[in-house]
Amino acid sequence: MITFVNPMILSLFIAFVQNSSAPRWQGFFYAACLFLVAMFRSVVVQQYWINCFVTGMRLRTAATAVVYRKSLKLSSASKRMATTGEICNLMSVDAQKLQDAPGYIHMLWSTPLTIALAIYFLWQQLGPSVLAGLAVMILLVPVNGAIAQKTRKLQISQMRFKDSRVKLINEILNGIKVLKLYAWERAFKEQVNEIRGNEMKLLKTSQFLSAGSSLSWFMAPYMVSLGTFAVYVLSSPNNILDANKAFVSLSLFNILQYPLSILPAVLSYLVQGAVSIGRISRFLKNEELNPDGVTHNPSAGKAAHYPVSIESGTFTWDKSETPTLRNINLRVPHGQLVGVVGQVGSGKSSLISAILGDMEILEGSVNQAGSMAYVPQQAWIQNGTVQENIMFSKTLFQPTYDDIIDACALTPDLKILAGGDQTEIGGKGINLSGGQKQRVSLARSVYQDCDVYLLDDPLSAVDAHVGKHIFERVIGPTGLLKHKTRILVTNSITYLSQMDQIVVMRNGEVSEIGTYQELVDRRGAFAEFIATYLVSNGNDGSSDEDDEGQCSLKIQIYLQNSRTPNYFQTNFFEDELLRQLSRSSGVSELALTSPMSPNEKLKKEEQTKQQMKLTEEELAKSGNVRLKDFLSYFKAYGGCLFTSTMWWYLMYLATQTGSNIWLSMWSNDPPSANGTQDIELRDLRLGVYGGLGLIQAIGVIGQSFSAAVGCVAASRALHHNLLNNILRAPMSFFDTTPLGRIVNRFARDIDVVDVNIPITLRIWLGTFAGVVSTLFVISFSTPVFLAVVIPLGIFYYYVQRFYIASSRQLRRIDSILRSPIYTHFEASLTGASSIRAYDQSKRFIQHSDYLLDKNQMAYYPYFTSNRSVAMTIGGHIAFIVYFNTLVYFVDGSVSGWRPLKSTIVTHFFIKAPEKVDMGRSLSHWPEQGRVELKNFSTRYRQGLNLVLNNVSVVINPMEKVGIVGRTGAGKSSLTLALFRILESTGGDIIIDDINIGHLGLTQLRSRLTIIPQDPVLFSGTLRLNLDPFSIFTDEEIWNSLSQAHLRGFVDSLPTGLSAAIAEGGGNLSVGQRQLVCLARALLRRTKILVLDEATAAIDLETDELIQSTIRTEFKDCTVITIAHRLNTIMDYDKIIMLDQGQIVEHDSPENLLQNPSSLFYRMAKDAHLV
Question: Which class for 494: exposed (0-12), middle (13-18), buried (19 or more C-beta within 10 A)?
């Protein structure tokens, strides 16, 4: 309302100027009123915006917090529907839309009110002629209403594609190592680009609609003024457009212009906000885990004697699917150790999940009394120190802590790590080996001192000696948990005789329960399984025809022989566990034992401080946004399009300035002698004014649509470059960069490029045109005004220089502090089962809230400083408030330039890491499979010690070679070097007379095959996970599934090869995922196959079948196996023994075993194979 006071005072002031007899005090009074009104308006407007921003900030905080809380309680079926990518978008994009909306929502009612008041006051000036302008606005309403409705539909569809894209990006980042090993980057990049292409089509349409809306609203004030002035001067020759009517009306038209020009942005923000509210609402309606599914009543029935009990339980992961577990009856007595065994996919891990309450209970009941600890099959590790991961928020009690570290075989690890237990572990434990992660996870559970322990095959990822140590010191009858209730899922038969009870799972049902001796005496499936395993491994050389009694005896003998002395406690761990530790610490045994001078020690201490820190902090850049960042954006925008946009913009600017000058000249035309209009001059003025408006409209059309095309082109190019660079980044980048930080670039920052920059650019161009036009017109009509403009310009320059520096930096900090929110969320979603099991949901929620508050601490000063500088400029402009129109336009240009420059900072943030050169490619290679290393050395990252040092070896075609050595000797480093995951720092690797350093990465990796230790699957179909390039026939894929012993399982799926795989392969067991990885290898059939402990998660019977498959199907290939189970490589042609990154032994197993002084002989003796 205060806005309309200025035109009224201006009218009185013009009347005072025209009345030479008026007293001078009136002029001073009117000037003072103009000044005070302008000051008061500035204060009110800025206070309004501050309140709106605070409201928006609270909305974003509430939305993010409630989404995080909901994500911890999602049921398994809901997790399939609400993917990680979608939830990340809800927290990053949709919550931000809610934050932006409050500042504009009040314009829904204030805009009609402003328009009505402007029309009323214009009626006072021009009479009924104003109805012509009103008619123009009424005609524009349905047009823009239709545009808004269409934009809303496009926004909904666009967000769906955005969810899919971020979900796929998240999966790619989680499985980036596998993608690189298989050379699948191109296939997944095409998937992302396909989704992005669909997103771009909708974005382009949306930008065109926005350009059309901008055309109508930007031209609306001009068309309204043209229509009103035309009707006014044409309706009567006595209607003369004098200075009072012209300038007061122009002031009112300028007031009218603001709501009309801002309305497209208002509709855009409100549509986006409405869409986001709908998306968040739908997510919050997803089904949650039933909190009453598992009762925790210590007095229920015999709960005191049975801490875990299931009565007639039937469970499923999704109510629409067939039950996974059926008719489960289980009672676990207090303090007992219960083993759960069964084949791959029999339901072992599902049984643990049922006890945790992660599955839907269709029938029966589950009761669990006391506190509970959970060790998942795939260890869940957070980004933090080793100690933080183990303590898990509990208070440190050093004696207990030290005992647990020793019992979990972590003492040697901590000695090797640069910072001991204060060394940082990367996200998902990326700088630890699989066994180390599992032991940290186990140590965490033991330190929590719970009543019930659910252990999902924690021993599968560790060496046999380490496993025995852990069983005896932690899990077994003499371990730290001997008085606790323990349920242990295992695929090993070694420890079964020490179990109090054994539960045998088959096809989702409990087929047998009993003690070890009882199950053997029954001579059922359990006894047959163990007998088959022992006979197939030839433990005593007897025939397959022994009767069942003899079979039982063999079992007893075998188990007695497996009880070895604790040699590993004194000898084994002295040299143990360096492999992945070198990735973070870079410390070798030589470095630990070599004497150092005082200077070297000081230097070593400084290096150690750096090595303790793995994850690189995301630092805020300082200084101006570099010119090349602007230029790189406009390069992506397109040179021709940018030139075209500027040309149309200059046309619009020139005609807008010209029309204002022309109107000023028109208002100064004297009337004819009889006091009426000069008809000929009137027609000339009106015609030229209309013509300038037409040219101005053409300029707006050209500017808006070329800007729309350019912004879409820039969005497409920037996302394409970012994706390319991320996929080509070396693994060291992912080791040191939290995935949440990268996801933030693809989610929030790309959304800024897609949506915010085009809107900001459009607003800035319009307001800057207004500034230039107004300054030029006023200076043209009142040259003395230049005396005010020059000092005002100097003042404005210094204010904006100070403000933009702080605003830019706060914007950078805001973006940086967003990344930890998403990193924490992703870690929480991955470990949701563990968080619930340990009853740590409240703590994780509090930490999420803390990170959110910390981010808002950067956002709050950003917008308050924005409003502060706006009020400062508004106050100084009040000193020249005689030129009222300048207040809006200069204030508008500040509001436009500041967000534009701050938003361009986002583009600076999405600079991707350095590329890796893809090199040249070959058409046919390799043909034989001969591998030669010549004085080869490598390290994980610059600044770390060598993990392979001057290695030279030749592996002949079709040789089967086992790579052995203590953990940390360099086994995995050697295989990673074959795939150039680790680049050479000296020497060469030659495969079939070709130096792999001269090959393209895709060419190299696509011609080698690896079965990794960690089975990684991607959401999509089963066929996609086996053949993403669609180069194999269905028959070939079915054959590979048969050879991988998955044919029966896939046949049971309703859609076969088209069966949906959940995100991360969540609807398959870990063993089934490992078999899918084997099927991939069988499909590729390359001349070189690398196995990295590929069957750790598979039961012994299936493991033997797979080993047989590998021996027959890859008999013409060179096979390189990293072996923890020495029995799997005893029939190999050669053994390579590595120690401290060097080859210390290379010969056949037979020759090495004949030499009692060889290291291989000692290892085989430790494993009781000799």
Answer: middle
Render pLDDT for 558-601 as a digit per residue (tens, 0 to 9).
343 333 333 333 333 333 333 333 444 433 333 333 444 545 54
* φ and ψ of 1154, to 5 deg: -80, -10
| Token code pair at residue 208 | 């065109």
Q: With a cut of 50, which residues of the chain have pLDDT below it?
A: 536-596, 598, 601-606, 608-610, 618-623, 882-921
Residue 845 to residues 59, 64, 68, 73, 444, Cα–Cα distance (Å): 17, 11, 7, 12, 20
Tell me the residue type at 789.
V
Do 1021 and 1103 touch, CB atoms closer than 8 A? no
> Is the Cβ–Cβ distance between 706 and 714 less than 8 Å?
no
Distance CA 442, CA 279 (A): 39
What are 968's two structure tokens?
């940390």
Beta bridge partners of 800: none
Enter the tokens of residue 422: 């204060």
pTM: 0.68
Q: What DSSP line would sit under 892-919, residue for residue? A: HHHHHHHHHHHHHHHHHHTPPPPP----
Contacts of 951 (CB under 8 A, 6+ apart): 933, 935, 936, 937, 970, 974, 987, 1141, 1142, 1143
Q: Can you tell me the distance from the alpha carbon of 514 to that of 528, in angstroms, rounded to the nearest whole number?
A: 15
CATH number at residue 1056: 3.40.50.300
Number of domains in the chain: 1
Residue 310 identity: I
DSSP-based three-state secondary structure for 282: helix
Inter-residue contact 979 to 180 (CB < 8 Å): yes
Going by DSSP bridges, is the β-strand pair 384-385/424-425 parallel, antiparallel, or unpaired? antiparallel
Cβ-count burial of 948 within 10 angstroms (0-12 exposed, 13-18 middle, 19+ buried)? buried
In a domain, 542, yes or no: no
Give SS3 for 205: helix
**β-pairing, 372-375 with 1009-1011?**
unpaired
Which residue is associated with the tokens 């307001």? 767
Both tokens of 731, joined, read 């693994």
DSSP string covering 835-864: HHHTT-HHHHHHHHHHHHHHHHHHHHHHHH
Residue 1081 placed within a domain = yes
Element (H, E) at 641: helix 639-667
Please give the Cα distance from 432 to 384 (Å, whole number). 12
CB neighbourhood size of 1154 (10 A)? 12
Q: Does residue 990 lie within any of the structural domains? A: yes
CA distances from 55 to 100, 105, 945 (A): 10, 11, 53
Whether residue 205 lies inside any domain: the answer is no
The closest of 838, 28, 795 to 390, measured between CA atoms, is 838
Between the alpha carbon of residue 930 and those of residues 314, 950, 986, 1135, the distances in Å are 54, 19, 20, 16
Residue type for 288, please?
E
Per residue in 426-477, pLDDT (tens digit) is 777 766 777 788 889 999 999 999 999 999 988 877 776 778 889 999 999 9
Distance CA 685, CA 662 (A): 8
DSSP string, 710-769: HHHHHHHHHHHHHHHHHHHS-HHHHHHS-HHHHHHIIIIIHHIIIIIHHHHHHHHHHHHH
Answer for the pair 967, 1016: CB distance below 8 angstroms, yes or no. no
Q: Is 432 exposed, middle or buried (0-12, 13-18, 19+ CB in 10 A)?
A: buried
Question: How many CB atoms neighbour CB 299 within 10 A?
Answer: 8
DSSP SS3 for 571: coil
In SS3 terms, 803-815 reads as HHHHHHHHHHHHH
- Domain span including residue 950: 931-1167
| Residue 561: partners with Cβ closer than 8 Å, 6 or more residues away | 1168
